[in-house]
Write a structure and sequence with these properties.
By secondary structure, the protein is an alpha/beta fold. The protein has 17 helices and 14 strands. The strands form three sheets. The protein has a ten-stranded mixed β-sheet with strand order 1-2-3-5-4-7-8-12-13-14, with helices on both faces. The longest helix is centred in the middle third of the chain and has 25 residues, at about 250-270.
């Protein structure tokens, strides 16, 4: 954010002093989270920019914020923004700030995808504004040594006290390397800092109150913003919700149950869908058989990949993110069950180049996930296997937990029950079967928000309800444009896949789901 303005050469020096005072005052207001209006900043300097998708007219800008909001006169970071202007300026409502989650997802990319991912209703009425959160994308990305990232990877599923100790050492070495490469920003990646950044963006946009749509981990940012700045919210949709109140065991338990239940829905869908290649087979028994073979080192495919049980778990979870992938998941399991005698080859080693790495720095400052010993992890595994006898555990929850072991930065935004008071109604939506953000998380967050929350359930499966259910999308569009909400506790009917060619498209209307594909590591929220 820049408060500097052109002025004659001589007064410019005095102007810089005044700018510093004004910036300090503004940051103090942002820090305080009070309802008192902050000093109006100079408008953001938008410039035309091109979308990587080649569709739509866009503008880009940057806003400068403190690395440490408690030291507003210290080091700063430039946040990269993109916006798609409202296509019906005469009926424009304002700016809709959006975030796709991750953590690590690019809000700029999310905005660039707006023309084919958001409905005409939203495109007409709002400037769709996306930002790369601090340390992500073009906002001074945190980087770490590729080789150290790779070295931690095989340790994320420890099987002894010795391997748990090695995991902790690897996590500490990786965190230290990230700090050495990226400086103090690594220590300030938490969602509280990002929520304050969002209010600086709101001020730079000239909006007295902001409208916000956050999905997946983007809901954690919205929740924190609503806690800090309730009077600066016009409307807020939280889609596929993070419950930031859960302790370490509860995170494992709820995600394991969600994966087990979602796999059960997939198996039942195959049983009633003739075009599923596993139609007529016992899908649960097949997966159990594949899991046991993988654990024994007996699954080798294409001469390239030795499938361990962890690989199988992660790929299964990734396929279950979206029902549009269910046809491919059935084909994958069928292929995996076909004998392949070829020998597996090892993967090439990485060369120690810097790699963007935001997920763990954010997660490990938002959640206190340290466990005292391997015995604790082994106890979790036994309990989870009883809760989820087919899928055993959630690899996403597990690698979140193990990825934070030994991480050196402080947990600056630890788990707590939401304390939101004084916002307009907040629309909270969640799929009944979501492997990343379980339905229990959405219901729990809505209860904690209390009277300000309106909870809408999509009765099907998938992550990102806006692109999964036309019914949910209509409710979100109506709410954001008119502020009218559905009834609290309302439901939208499930939509099950019928066409294997409809991958990543919303049912019936061709909108494309812009959320990042789940990576092979399974670390996505």
């Amino acid at each position: 954010m820049s408060f500097d303005s052109p002025s004659p050469a001589r007064p410019r020096r005095r102007g810089r002093f005044a700018v510093g005072v004004l910036a300090t005052a503004l940051f103090a207001q942002l820090l305080g989270g009070t309802s008192v209006a902050a000093p109006a900043p100079e408008p953001l300097a938008w410039q035309p920019c091109e979308s990587p998708y080649g569709e739509g007219a866009f503008e880009c800008a940057t806003v400068t914020v403190p690395v440490d909001w408690e030291r507003p006169q210290g080091a700063t970071v430039d946040l990269a923004l993109a916006r798609h202007r409202a296509t019906d300026p005469g009926h424009r409502i304002g700016s809709l700030l959006v975030n796709p989650g991750g953590p690590g997802g690019s809000g700029r990319e999310f905005a660039f995808a707006a023309p084919f991912s958001f409905s005409p209703d939203l495109l007409e009425r709002f400037d769709i504004v996306g930002f790369d959160p601090r340390g992500i994308g073009l906002s001074d990305p945190v980087t770490c040594d590729e080789e150290l990232i790779a070295a931690q990877e095989p340790l994320l599923f420890p099987d002894s006290g010795a391997s748990f100790a090695a995991l902790r050492r690897a996590g500490g070495a990786l965190g230290d390397d990230c700090s050495a490469r990226s400086g103090s920003l690594v220590d300030h990646m938490d969602s509280t800092s990002v929520a304050r950044d969002m209010d600086a963006i709101r001020a730079g946009l000239g909006e007295e109150r902001i409208s916000y749509y956050g999905v997946s981990y983007g809901t954690a940012l919205g929740e924190r913003y609503a806690e800090l700045f309730p009077k600066r919210v016009r409307a807020m949709t939280l889609d596929s919700v993070i419950d930031h109140s859960l302790d370490t065991w509860s995170l494992q338990k709820t995600r394991a149950i969600a994966l087990e239940e979602t796999f059960g829905q997939f198996a039942d869908w195959c049983a009633r869908t003739a075009s599923c290649v596993l139609h007529g087979r016992d899908v649960r028994a097949l997966f159990d058989s594949l899991y046991r073979r993988a654990a024994a080192g007996e699954l080798i495919r294409g001469g390239d990949v030795l499938f361990t049980d962890e690989h199988l778990q992660r790929l299964a979870q990734n396929f279950l993110y979206s029902t549009a992938d269910w046809f491919r998941f059935a084909e994958f399991l069928t292929d995996l069950d076909t004998p392949d005698p070829a020998e597996a080859r090892s993967s090439p080693r990485l060369r120690g180049e810097p790699a963007a790495y935001a997920y763990v720095p954010v997660l490990c400052q938002d959640f206190a996930l340290e466990v005292p010993s391997y015995a604790t992890l082994a106890g979790y595994q036994r309990r989870l296997a009883r809760l989820a006898p087919v899928t055993r555990f959630s690899p996403l929850a597990w690698t979140d937990l193990t990825g934070c072991q030994g991480w050196p930065t402080r947990v600056t935004n630890p788990q707590h029950r939401l304390r939101i008071d004084g916002t307009p109604p907040i629309l909270v939506t969640n799929s009944r079967y979501d492997v990343a953000t379980p339905h229990a998380w959405g219901a729990g967050a809505a209860r904690q928000i209390g009277g300000e929350a309106v909870f809408l359930t999509y009765d099907g499966a998938g992550h990102g309800d806006y692109w999964t259910s036309p019914c949910v999308r209509d409710a979100i569009d109506t709410y954001l444009t008119t502020l009218a909400t559905p009834g609290d506790g309302a439901h939208c009917p499930a939509v099950w896949p019928t066409d294997s060619s409809a991958r990543r498209q919303s049912p019936g209307d061709g909108l494309v789901n812009p959320l990042p594909e789940p990576p092979g590591t399974g670390t996505r929220g």
